[in-house]
Amino acid sequence: MRSPFIRYAVFILSTLALSACGTLERKAAVPASDLTRAQIAGMQSSRYLIATSAGINSFVDDVNQLNKRLGKTVLDGKSNYLSLSGGGDNGAFGAGLLVGWTEQGTRPEFNLVTGISTGALIAPFAYLGKDYDPVLTEVYTKVKPSDIFKSRGFLSGFFGDGLADTSPLFQLISKYVTADFLKKVAHEYNNRGRWLLIGTTNIDAGTPVIWNMGQIASIGTPESLELFRKILLASASIPAAFPPVMFDFMIDGKEFQEMHVDGGATTQVFLYPGAAANRAKEIGVKRNTNRQAYIIRNARLDVDWQQTERRTLSIAGRAISQLIQSQGLGDLYRIYNITQDDRVGFNLAYIGADFTFPHVEEFDTKYMQALYDYAYQRARKGYDWSKYPPGYRKSIEEDTTMQPELLNTKPTPKKTK
Fold first, then answer.
1. Banded model confidence at residue 5, pLDDT cuts 50, 70, 90
2. 8 Å CB contact between 54 and 273
């Protein structure tokens, strides 16, 4: 999410009272007490409410059941995990890194792929492997703003549910996510125990939701294909800038709806809940000692200095931008703590301070091409993954400089007497 969309969001929030009279109709929201019981009509449960114990248990139970059905544990053997963050058109970084990694020759097959926002759009193709590198290259070096959204105009956007119409993005998703594509996802999930998880935000409940895309793909109906596509769209639907995605649910024969928006509204990047790892240990899920997590943060981690105009919207927009960056840094520390507790290797990639190509507008094709090539060239030579989150074990003075070369510094071992 970058400054133009942030300004739109601030504008909408600042005039919310005026727009109340133009509220769009919707079905009743799923009551808080029934969130775990709500089901999409005709489909088995395929989402995890990870903010609840029931959601964690459901996730781990599904892992355990898949293990038993396959006659082995999903985590047997060498395991590699990939987490793709949000970042709008900065997703070109993740796309370029993956393609360059393929060219370098050491890109592994991932047992688990997770995605948020623009990372959700990359995740299915990263999950299916190098055969889909041309899709990542096409989408992140050729698209224009008109391929992602179209403006609704001031009045329509102001009194609607988003300033832009994302039907072009849904068409782009539908172009590549076909029935045959879902068959491949289903095969990897059902026959090889590989997981693809996408995060959205249930804005009614104010909670994160993780969707089991392999399970959805396995249903194999036109409705499941539509749901798969809608989840990807929802994960990338920036609140206020883009319309939310509505999902219909049934409870005791009655119809309800959930409103979902960008997964980045609750987290910028995720691996798996720490509580799920603890639960897996409790029920005896066996895991290999050789496990590596690769986190691609489609954003810069250094401070983006700029002189802020002394105007209300400028100040508010700048503050929101910094809140998002802080959230992203916090998410990296959360993942690091999970990997350390769970004995998983931590590997972090991000946009370095040395990338200075000007960013003119959202989904600026030239900017995306430059960023894609920046990541591609670094990965092709062998990407130098950071082994710690930014600022780890550094003084406050060092932390504020965000010196990239210090991020790989190993902790100094304590001397023993």
1. low
2. no
For residues 177 and 233, give the distance between their C-alpha atoms in angstroms, rounded to a whole number. Answer: 12
Asked if pLDDT for residue 238 goes beyond 60, the answer is: yes
Based on its alpha-carbon atoms, the radius of gyration of the chain, rounded to whole angstroms, reads 21
Pairing state of beta strands 112-116 and 150-151?
A: unpaired
How far, in Å, are 97, 122, 364 from residue 370 at the CA level?
A: 12, 18, 10
Contact status, residue 62 vs residue 279, Cβ threshold 8 Å: no
List the Cα angle 199/12/318 in 5-degree steps: 75
Q: What is the pLDDT of residue 303?
A: 73
CA nearest neighbour of 90 among 116, 113, 118, 124: 118
Which residues 6+ apart lie within 8 Å of 263 measured at CB?
86, 116, 117, 120, 198, 199, 200, 201, 208, 235
The tokens describing 307, both together, are: 């002189």
What Cα–Cα distance (Å) separates residue 112 from each residue in 74, 129, 193, 405? 10, 12, 9, 29
Closest CA to 149 of 173, 123, 125, 116: 173
| Residue 403 confidence (pLDDT) above 60 | no
Give the pLDDT mean for 358-363: 86
Strand partners, 350: 297
Q: Is the pTM of this model over 0.70?
A: yes
The encoded tokens of residue 335 equal: 């993942």
Q: Is 128 left (phi over 0), alpha (psi -120 to 50) or beta?
A: alpha
Closest residue by Cα to residue 110 from 93, 91, 129: 129
Q: Name which residue leads in pLDDT, 193 or 360.
A: 193
Can you tell me the distance from the alpha carbon of 286 to that of 273, in angstroms, rounded to the nearest whole number? 17
The pairing of strands 47-48 and 207-212 is: antiparallel
Higher pLDDT, 155 or 190: 190
Q: Which amino acid is at 7?
A: R
Instruction: Dig out the tokens for 380 from the structure.
Output: 């092709």
pLDDT of residue 378: 97
pLDDT, mean over the chain: 86
What is the pairing mode between strands 112-116 and 345-351?
Answer: unpaired
pLDDT band at 236 (very low <50, low <70, confident <90, very high): very high
